[in-house]
Amino acid sequence: MKKSTPTLLALALLLSGPAMALAHDFKVGQIEIDHPHARAMLPGAKVGGGYLSITNEGADDRLVAVATARAASAQLHEMKMDGGIMVMRELKDGVAVPAGATVELKPGGYHVMFMNVAEPFKEGEKIAATLTFEKAGTVEVEFTVGPAAGGGQDANKGHGQ
Ligand SMILES: [Cu+2]
User: Fold this and answer.
1) Which domain holds residue 54?
2) Percent of the chain, pLDDT > 90?
């Protein structure tokens, strides 16, 4: 019995080391959020896109809201081709995350749209945000800001003004 304590301790250290190094993922209940990231915004830009991957090991759920102090509001959007034109629309009911599924929010598909951003996101920053799931509840995450998109203004494309 005396031997088991140091063995367990060593095992715990072994497991916690690599896990902490990986760690750009977040969990709430049976939902795992992987690699939330955003693109750097051009000076003066007011709208930014956010992307992440959601894996649901539990029952059917739904991402219903995103909030951050960095934007006046954040919406969930869908981008798709409609008669040869890229259009975006707000998903008023959020993004469905079915049981057992992984849903990707990525450029050209579902995404978070940060609206009326006071200070454009800069590469290397982390944007703290709260995600709300209909069943799993809320979770604090950080969007890591990467380089700006190639096209510059394409975060705005499809948003008819
Ligand atoms: Cu959008």
Assistant:
1) 25-150
2) 74
